Amino acid sequence: MNPLFSIVTVCFNSEATIERTLRSVLQQRCKDYEYLIVDGASKDGTMSIVRRYEPLFEGRLTATSEPDKGIYDAFNKGCRKAQGRYLWIVNSDDYLEPDALEQLERVVAGFDADNSPIISCGAHIVDAEGKVLHDLLYDASDLQWRMKVDSIAFVHPATLVPKAVYERRGYYDDHYRIMADLDWSRRVWMAGESIVYQPIFVTNMYNGGISSGLRLSVNIKERRYYFSKFYENPWERKRHFWHWMWMYLKGHLKTWLVQHNILKSKQS
């Protein structure tokens, strides 16, 4: 019988954080899951840590290590291999709340197994020491607005997706380096897939990630590719691109002002 949940963690040279992620999955009281580790041929001690923990999962953990084309290629490998009803991508520098699967099991129990929605929950944003900096929790009220301004529809590391949705709508576009989750969320929204928002916090997300520190040129290239996919009208593409550019630069200016104590942070 297939498990209720498939948890997928992709990693590459993650020895500094992977143990915390593994421990957070291991401590879950709900055991109706499989855990898939997809490693990109790490050169450090990542896989040694994974192999040390593997017996503790009593057959629930499966790990592979091989070169890949990037994070979204690794996502796709894990999602295609997963056998659970719901798939959850948990990054190798994130860690679950102790009762995450218990809470989610109760939520899933209210849904028809043949017509399961995407479940979007909340995440605590934490620093390297685990201190909560702020929270991310979306709801249905601003879904239309988020799509209008080309923003992601849900907190991706706190979102569970039915395997059936991936099979119907496809996996992640691995042409991207940082934006395939936005691309995928727009595709499923346009296809009319149901998204249910739950006001529960299920994971802790490191304040950083793959997009941190990337050059503006990379962001521009990805945005141009994204807009070319979803807007046929060239004027619409230009309008959305320049709106994004303005919001991007405004956000970075605000961050700079906060870092230099010129503007007070809302979280302080």
Give a brief outline of the structure.
The protein has 268 residues and is an alpha/beta fold. Helices cover 38% and strands 21% of the residues. Strands 1, 2, 3, 4, 5, 6, 7, 8 and 9 form a 9-stranded mixed beta sheet that branches.
Describe what you observe in this structure.
The chain contains 9 helices and 9 strands. It is α/β, with parallel strands linked by helices. The chain folds into 2 domains: 202 residues, Spore Coat Polysaccharide Biosynthesis Protein SpsA, Chain A (Alpha-Beta Complex), CATH 3.90.550.10; 44 residues. Strands 1, 2, 3, 4, 5, 6, 7, 8 and 9 form a 9-stranded mixed β-sheet that branches. Helix 1 runs parallel beside helix 2 and helix 8 packs antiparallel against helix 9. The longest helix is centred in the last third of the chain and has 26 residues. The chain is globular and about 55 Å long. It starts with a strand and ends in a 9-residue tail after the last helix. 32% of the residues are buried. The mean pLDDT is 92.
pLDDT averaged residue by residue: 92
Please report the total strand number as a whole number. 9
| Helix amount | 25-40%
CATH topology of the largest domain, which one?
Spore Coat Polysaccharide Biosynthesis Protein SpsA, Chain A
- Helix/strand order, N-terminal first: EHEHEHEEHEEHEHHEHH
Radius of gyration: 19 Å
- The CATH level-2 architecture of the largest domain is identified as Alpha-Beta Complex
How would you sum up the global shape?
A: globular
Which structural class is indicated by helix and strand composition?
alpha/beta
CATH superfamily of the largest domain: Spore Coat Polysaccharide Biosynthesis Protein SpsA, Chain A
What are the low-pLDDT stretches, counting only 5+ consecutive residues below 50?
Answer: none
Describe the largest sheet: 9 strands, mixed
- How far do the termini sit from each other? 49 Å
- Count of discrete alpha- or pi-helical segments spanning 4 or more residues: 9
